[in-house]
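Exercise 3.2. Students should predict the tertiary structure of the chain below and write it as structure tokens, then compare their answer with the key that follows.

Predict this chain's 3D structure.
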Amino acid sequence: MLSEFELRDRIASVGETQKITGAMYLIASNELRRAKEAYDRTVPYFTALRAEMKRIFRCSSDIDSKYLYPADGSRLPDGRYGILLITADKGLAGAYNMNAIKEAEAVMKDHPNPALYVVGNYGRKYFSARKIPFEEDFEYSAQSPTLHRARKMAALLLSHFRDGKFDKLFVIYTDYLNDAVQSVVNERILPFHREMFFEQGEQMRRTEKRSQFAFFPSEKVVLEATVPSYVCGYIYSALTGSFLSEQRSRMAAMEAADRSARDMLDELDFEYNRLRQSEITSEITEISAAARFQREHKSIRGGENP
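Answer key:
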């Protein structure tokens, strides 16, 4: 059984930890709000960009580009995989980091020796500790994603794709759907199928007359000029979704830690009060016994006097 001093010390320690988890919850909540606002401001631009690429394919569905699967629908050979994995810079976010890492490891098991690009210190430390090679020069923070950072990442990945460093690029990240749902996404973005830009069930056909639009100097040139912006937009969306998911996961982890701290404090307070009650009862018993002894002793001495 713990002593009174040890219980007081543990109660103070748990109380300090509870203050830290509360502060981390508030910080994560503020970061989540700011990231949502930043993301919402960029959605219209990338929605319009996607619509423009859709219009190109509607006007000309037989464009031949290194960024696209063949127009005849044939499959490309597997080749070497490129994996862009997005993790956090730190832990204390529940299973957020490990869920994404496990998905990447599953892909690596089926496709050994990929070109691995890792965002976030947590993922880099994880693979470094296990001697798993990854692109050492690809050192990007997961905190506060920006379009500038997404453009640099997209430019590097597109350069490596054109140079043949990998043949297919997959992005693995945790997407933020709402406060209750965050799920790991594993999606190929290079090369991409034309059908990616059409809604499910929508036929990819020339429903718009070619004469309505002018692509100068050609659809292919416009498409290849648009692809970097599209890839940048996708990466920015993945970075933002991951960051939102990280903050929400951290909020949930801090909520759980706060509940555990409250439960622990309740147990410690109960134990402390029980111990104090026991000590008070013992002290009262000792005082009563001493008083009774003195009364009895006086009575005996008084009976001896003539």
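Discussion points: The first strand starts at residue 81 and ends at 86. The radius of gyration is 32 Å.
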